[in-house]
Amino acid sequence: MKNTSTARAGHPAPRASTLSGWQAWLPRLVLAPSVAISLFFVYGFMLWTFILSLTSSRMLPSYDFVGFGQYARLMQNERWWVASTNLMIFGSLFVVICLVIGVLLAMLLDQKIRQEGALRTIYLYPMALSFIVTGVVWKWLLNPSLGIQAMVRSWGFESFRFDWLVDSDMVIYTLVIAAVWQASGFVMALFLAGLRGIDDSIIKAAQLDGASLPRVYWRVVMPCLRPVVFSAVMILAHIAIKSFDLVVALTGGGPGYASDLPATFMYAHAFNRAQIGLGSASAMLMLGGVLAILIPYLYSELRSRRHG
Amino acid sequence: MAALEIHNVSKDFGSERVLKDVSISIDSGEFLILVGPSGCGKSTLMNAIAGLEPVTSGNIYIDGEDVTWRPPADRDIAMVFQSYALYPSMTVRQNISFGLEMRKVPKPEREAAVERVADLLQITPLLERKPSQLSGGQRQRVAMGRALAREPKVYLFDEPLSNLDAKLRVDMRTEIKKLHQRLGTTIVYVTHDQVEAMTLADCIAVMRDGHILQLGSPDEVYNNPVDMFVAGFMGSPSMNFISAMLERDGDDYAVRIATPNEEDLCLPWPTARVTDAMTEQLGKPVILGLRPEHFSEEDERLSAQAEGTLLHASVTVVEPTGADILLRLPLGEQEVTARVGPKCAVSPGERLALRVDMARAILFNAETEKRLA
Amino acid sequence: MANVIRRQTLAARVSRLAVYSVLILAALFYLLPLAVMLMTSVKPLSEISAGTLLTLPQNPTLAPWTKAWGEACTGMRCDGVGGYFWNSFAIVIPAVLISTTIGALNGYALTKWRFKGSELVFALMLFGCFIPFQVVLLPMAQTLGWLGISSSRAGLVLVHVVFGIAFTTLFFRNFYVGIPNELVSAAKLDGAGFFRIFWRILLPVSTPIIVVSVIWQFTQIWNDFLFGVAFSAHNTQPVTVALNNLVNTSTGVREYNVDMAAAMIAALPTLVVYVLAGKYFVRGLTAGSVKG
After folding, report:
1. Side-chain half-sphere of A81: how many Cα atoms within 13 Å?
2. Which residues form the ABC transmembrane type-1 domain (chain A) (predicted)?
């Protein structure tokens, strides 16, 4: 900026204020509140939570620093480990099953199906529901004495057991079922959009080369969908880490704390158990988890954009 | 007084300099065309004139007034965009009158201006339509109408015909020419199409890498290009460039073209066209520039008085265009294009005698690519 | 020869049948919970304990719905979810309008008036789409207290606006990137300024993205539970929180039909939006997730 203004020493007024007057500042003025909001409510709050995680805060925030003591406590906390392990199990199953169902349904729907629109609407509607509603419904379906187990038993299969909801070893899988039910249609929609974006002539060319339809999908279409797989994994993992309402409504974290996830752990400690310091530390670890997924994603996204 | 004067304008994008010390001056009523390959800076220069992008240094004057730091709206210019940029939510009528409305022109005058422009461009039946209901050619007319309504000092056209199909492009080209002749407007017109440049311009500026290589009338630019780039850019099919050596025998200069498996071809250079620059290149490699029409088919009845040098070559490809025939034939180590009359009966493989009009040939320095003679 | 062709068409027919059966089975899987929910919500309690999930209601009754709406106990109070249903609207409507307006202006400024650092500003704001909200809960609670709007509907509106503008800005930015800059240049030459170009040129063509943004924000905020449960008091709760309280209230007999009716009530607004404007809903989902 400096050297250009000396280059135009003959001109009395600087560029920005004369070229388009105060109009040049309007865009910045319009964006300023949002930037301020984002700096304060996102970045500021992240820092604030981090600071809280370094204190011994219990009922109320106090600023009595204990270093990384809360993180050390967290690492020794049995319930935190249950929650983290649960997130691993829940997250990986949720992502993989949603992807498989989503890809399968999208490919089948792409076969010039009659009533495609209606089917698509049916597959996707759960995404419009609140996780609370989903949790309430599945809690009812999975209720051993009145739900699916009771129904199958009434058909004559007396020994049928499907009581995962009250089985602390299996309860985490009920979360997977409900979450897959809610989100897999969305993955289908993502893949269908991806499939529709592929140039038809590529598929025709591959078929003329003698490839069978499944082979065409595997060898030609799937590689084109790699970016979709990538963003689907990203979104699903993100949903998994944030999952809070579903646990609250479906299992309440129980039996005991067998189906806790980090999100419910954080809430329980920060709001119900007067452990603000510990809750903040767990929130920071959740943020770390999201960043661990997000940064490679953004990196590759930016790189591909620069190259293409 | 110059209607538009661009004085030593430079423009940087980050560390890259996209306009390098550009200076142009045109008079009122002149039609200036900026031409060059994509990325040569012609659109940036256009945006700088419009005030859509600030320049890094230099000045722009419109009608003698320094407008370098004025916002676009205060420069009294109008622009026709490549994509037409018609406001999609407005009717044709609203599109044309929007600029006048912004300038607080009273409604009756606005209406009159719309009628005048619509009449001029024959778009009166389209006035109540939305841009999405128009064909490409109609959109183009509306875009011009929007510019004409304001009667500004300078019109800017940014590749206005490049989105039209071939036939429509020719029609609209003629129409723009007619409009210019009728209204006597000052126009700056950007294109990468050298035919448009040749047919429309009073003055052509050939640009490359942010420089103006040559500024002159279409005739000058075509027949007296300053370097190989300008020579190759203007004209279609483009000029043939043949590697050769410059030789001298007494007062006679000649261009020697090495021909594989045959005797070297030696073309005598007209003595009247010898320049000082040539003498410095004696015995050194040069590039001989010959346009396709510098070749002609040898006619035996006229051969006695015919000018130019005779050469023989076997034709490799024959491309009749209707009006004439384009021949591909080897000359030295290159293959060249020659334009001959439509009556020329020749088939590939045949040997043909052609005359080369050395009086119009151009000689370039092989290293600097600048013109020698 | 004819034989071969016939065999092929037979194989084709079989595989076609397989495709349709898989698709229909999948449709049943997605539809069943909704069907069960709906059926249960109109059965009397006696039918629920006597029959199974799929038994059709013998004496359909709307009593569970009226009870869920006006009488069911949600925690301490027993006045149904009706009041909370309106609470949700009172929170959602201003939050959607404000966040969409801000997002539209941001998207416009970021794409059509680029300046040094505007990409950085966008990246800075975009990050707000990704953070787990647990990381802002505690500071937010304290800030709402300072502002004197803790446990109020205004507080919830503020929270949803603050964390919604990242998404709405993203929507509008990605939409406006596709609108030719030349339109803005033309309008500048015509003499229009920042707001006038937005109002006269950009806004009239923005209907699709406004619909997407409104629908996305509506479903997000309506379905929110975390902020609702963290920042509301008993009289300002959104319907999702009330529904959860209703289902988990442990006094008296479990009335599953009332639970399901309340769940239906909480689900209806977003379902209606989805059915009416599914196309835009999908577009919002994909645009909100597949960036660029």
Report:
1. 6
2. 84-299
Contact B72 C196 (CB under 8 A): no
CA distance B134 to chain A (A): 28
As given in the structure block, the two tokens for residue C58 are 């013998």
For residues B92 and B125, membership in a common domain is answered with: yes
Question: Looking at the partner chain, which of A238, A252, A263 has a beta carbon nearest the beta carbon of C248?
Answer: A252
Distance from the Cα of C20 to chain A's closest Cα (Å) equals 8
Cα-only R_g, chain C: 25
Does residue B234 sit within a domain? Answer: no
Neighbours of A210 (CB within 10 A): 7
Beta-carbon separation of C182 and B102 below 8 A: no
Q: Are residues B258 and B220 in the same domain?
A: no
Number of domains in chain B: 2
Q: Which of B83, B90, B99 sits opposite C191 (nearest CB)?
A: B99
Mean pLDDT by 10 residues, chain B (373 residues): 89 90 92 91 91 91 91 90 90 93 92 92 92 91 91 91 88 90 92 89 93 93 93 90 88 85 83 84 88 84 64 88 89 89 84 87 90 86
Instruction: Select the residue of A127, A146, A147 nearest C285 (Cβ to Cβ).
Output: A127
- The secondary element (H helix, E strand) that includes residue C210 is helix C207-223
Contact residues on chain C for A24, CB-CB shorter than 8 A: 115
Q: Given CB atoms, is B13 within the 8 Å cutoff of chain C?
A: no
- Chains near C (3 or more Cβ pairs under 8 Å): A, B
Q: How many CB pairs below 8 Å do chains A and B form together? A: 21
Chain B residue with minimum CA distance to A16: B69
Residue-wise pLDDT for A54-87, tens only, equals 998 888 888 888 888 899 999 999 999 999 999 9
Using one digit for the tens of pLDDT, what is the confidence trace for A188-218? 988 888 888 887 788 778 777 777 777 888 8
Topology given in CATH for the domain delimited by A78-307: MetI-like fold (1.10.3720)
Minimal Cα–Cα distance from B90 to chain C, Å?
8
Please state the ipTM of this predicted complex: 0.88
Give Cα separations from C114 to B12, B39, C95, C202 (angstroms): 16, 21, 27, 16
Chain C neighbours among B 259-318 (CB < 8 Å)?
Answer: none
* DSSP tag of B368: T
- Per CATH, domain C82-289 is 1.10.3720.10: yes
* Residues above pLDDT 90, as percent of chain C: 49
